[in-house]
Amino acid sequence: MISEIKILGNSFLLNFQSASNHEIAILPIFAISVEMGLNYYTIKKNIRNARKLVIRATSVAGSGHPGGSFSMAEIMGCIFFKHLRYDPRNPNWEDRDKLVLSKGHASPGLFSNMAVAGYFPISELDTLRQLGSKLQGHPDLKCPGVEFCGGSLGIGLSFSVGLALAARLDGKQTRIFTVLGDGETDEGQVWEAAMTGSKYKVDNLTAILDRNFIQQDSYTEKVMPLDEELVGDDLSEMWKDASRWKIGDKWNSFGWNVIDIDGHRIEQLDHAMKKAMQTKGVPTIIVARTIKGKGVEHMEDNPKWHGQAPKKEFVPIIDMEIDSQSMIAPSIIAGDMTNLENEVKRCVGGRADYIHLDVMDGMFVPNKTFDHAKIKELRPLTVIPFDAHLMINEPLKFVRDYVDAGSDIITVHAEVCDASSFGEIHDILKANQVGVGLAINPDTDLPEWSMQFIPGLDQLIVMSVVPGKSGQKYIDSTHEKMRQLAKILTEHKFDGYIEADGGVTLDNVGACFADGARVFVGGSAIVGQQDMRGVIREFRNKIAYARRKTLIQKAHDLGGKDLVAKWIDLHTIGEKKNQLGLIAKELGYT
Ligand code: DX5
Ligand code: ZN
User: Fold this and answer.
1) Which atom of ligand 1 is nearest to 356's Cα?
2) Which one of 367, 412, 474, 521 would you pick to mutate in the ligand 1 pocket, going by the greatest count of ligand atoms within 8 A of its CB?
3) Pocket test for ligand 1, best of 478, 501, 509 (most atoms within 8 A of CB)
4) Which protein residue has the closest C-alpha to ligand 1 atom 6?
5) Of all atoms in ligand 1, which is nearest to the CA of residue 474?
6) Which atom of ligand 1 is nearest to the CA of 526?
7) Cα–Cα distance between 145 and 88 in angstroms, integer?
8) Number of H helices, E strands in the chain
9) Closest Cα to atom 9, ligand 1: which residue?
10) Cα 334-336-338 angle, rounded to 5 deg
11) Residues 306 and 428 both lie in one domain
């Protein structure tokens, strides 16, 4: 309970009554250790659902801020589902951590995560911005679990410094997470709070700057440059050119520990938040470079979507778009086996989403590659998720070694498991926050015993070559197999990602996407190429094309040529519109 409020500069100092006799009645379900695995899939799936809920809530309300909710979607996902300690059944739990959404206009992004976390039923999001609702256009304390009334920009950091000092006075381990908008940091009070935070060494405070380069009216670098003034309109250049980023230097000169990351990468956010917590004696700011509207192409980098709700007719198409995010997983065995360290580094330079690690034991398959000891050696080289594909006999015997080595996703083969052993593997992986994967060979169908595990599977590898080596030709009948599988998986409520593995190339990756695959392993077609970064970019372009095609088809199914034309018209930034037009023409929809 607050017993005293003092003003420190522009920061509040809140004095809480001692809670030394407090006992925790229930263990909060999100009080998890950050020492465990990345928890990649829980975070990812929750982010996906939260994004769809933002679309639902703002379209029902007819107003709201999807753009800024999406730029911070991964930031919020990592805070809520990995680092923040709270209990949705007891929002006032005294030992909770505190999240301050200083950029309060992005309240749909906060409320959607709170709904996913269980603070209130998802259906309540339909009351967003209605008179009498606890879910207003800006967060309000009348919503249990909200820590700060946002809306007036620039004051959340001052409030957070106060919370951090109060926790210190109370001898509590409370951590404060504060999400700031970049446009918001035009406010002078932010810099007063920055000085205060530094003077009082509030190392229990982590600020995260949602650096999306767009504020209400225009680009931040036009309104009030934080890095340098933007000449012309090509924002993408600014985003890509690290030599032009100055905002971190500003915070640094104010005495803050600065961590610069890609704010849409779960693993980078997670790593930065861990580092922030380990940093003592100074507050930390994570400069998370993000894209406004990220996840929905027509909203991306478009200032128009800062504060505009999507029309209802587009919601199913947008939902499909959000559901169809994909990942590239280079397989390092296609490189120099005598220098796997270098292959991992090449994957990092290539901006891979996962690093696919093909473990072969010389028994399940004739070849031998490496085992958990090698994975452990490679682990410190990057935070990119390790996607360990175990082509080994008796996986239950060894799975813990692969968890300990630092794998983020572990996939075992259905051919060497049964209900009992896979059940144990599943439980070990879930308990350690490691993704659960099952793989099937080209001539294997999903066994009957596996059906019970389908809803909890994070990844299903559908092999499109006989496992054992890279560089083989894609087995064409896999396309048909995938389509058959899609039906079974939907019936059994599969909520994970299908990984296409074996012989995937630039020529067939689009077709694999259309089959339903969302993760694409590339051995010879990626790691085997000299310019890994270039080839990954080409893979992404091919996938983007296939994805746009499925969305156009969806628009046509829902509303014929008329809706197709409207969908295309939404895309005003970049080259997308032209390509969508060509796809529609090709499909005979114009
Ligand atoms: C095959 C492996 C694959 C393979 C990929 O046993 O599981 O990951 O190495 O390499 P490419 O893409 O060359 O088939
Ligand atoms: Zn593989």
Assistant:
1) 8
2) 521
3) 501
4) 467
5) 14
6) 12
7) 7
8) 19, 15
9) 470
10) 130
11) no
pLDDT given at position 239: 67
**Alpha helices of 432-508 — where are they, by DSSP H?**
477-491
Shared domain check, 97 and 25: no
Asked whether residue 6 is assigned to any structural domain, the reply reads yes
Ligand 1 atom closest to the Cα of residue 503 is 14
For residue 444, the CA-to-ligand 1 centroid distance in Å is 17
**Residue 258 Cα to ligand 2 middle (Å):** 37
Task: Report CA-CA distances (Å) from 176 to 55, 81, 138, 205.
Answer: 28, 15, 20, 5
Structure-block tokens of residue 18: 């001692």
Of 264, 288, 310, the last residue of a domain is 310
Q: 505: buried, middle or exposed (CB in 10 Å: 19+, 13-18, 0-12)?
A: middle
CA 501 / ligand 1 centre spacing (Å): 6
CATH of the domain at 523: 3.20.20.70
Pairing mode of beta strands 205-211, 284-289: parallel
pLDDT in tens, the chain (590 residues): 233 333 322 233 333 333 333 322 233 344 444 467 899 999 999 999 999 999 999 999 998 888 899 999 999 999 999 999 999 999 999 999 999 999 989 999 999 999 999 999 999 999 999 999 999 999 999 999 999 998 889 999 999 999 999 999 999 999 999 999 998 999 999 999 999 999 999 999 999 999 988 887 778 888 888 887 777 766 666 666 777 788 999 999 999 999 999 999 999 999 999 999 999 999 999 999 999 899 999 999 887 887 889 999 999 999 999 999 999 999 999 999 999 999 999 999 999 999 999 999 999 999 999 999 999 999 999 999 999 999 999 999 999 999 999 999 999 999 999 999 999 999 999 999 999 999 999 999 999 999 999 999 999 999 999 999 999 999 999 999 999 999 999 999 999 999 999 999 999 999 999 999 999 999 999 999 999 999 999 999 999 999 999 999 999 999 999 999 999 999 987 788 999 999 999 999 99
Ligand 1 site-directed mutation target among 328, 333, 389, most atoms within 8 Å of CB: 333
Q: Whose CA is nearest to atom 1 of ligand 1?
A: 467
Give how many domains the chain has, as a whole number.
4
564 and 473 in one domain? no
Residue nearest ligand 1's atom 3 by CA: 502
Expressed in angstroms and rounded, the spacing between residue 270 Cα and the centre of ligand 2 is 26
Q: Are residues 401 and 381 in the same domain?
A: yes
Rounded alpha-carbon distances, angstroms, from residue 369 to 112, 247, 428, 501: 44, 45, 24, 17
Q: Are residues 15 and 107 in the same domain?
A: no
Reference 170, options 32, 26, 13; nearest CA is 13
553 lies in the same domain as 411: no
Q: How far apart are CA 183 and CA 198, in angstroms?
A: 22
Using only C-alpha atoms, the chain has a radius of gyration, in whole angstroms, of: 24
Measured from CB, residues less than 6 Å from any atom of ligand 1 are 331, 333-334, 356, 358, 389, 465, 467-468, 470-472, 501-504, 521-525
**pLDDT tens digits for 198-254?**
999 999 999 999 998 888 777 888 888 888 777 776 666 666 677 778 899 999 999
CA dist 269 and 265 (Å) reads 6
Q: Which residue, 278, 310, 342, sits at the end of a domain?
A: 310
Query: Domain span at residue 57?
Result: 40-310
Same domain? For 46 and 28 the reply is no
Closest residue by CA, ligand 1 atom 4: 470
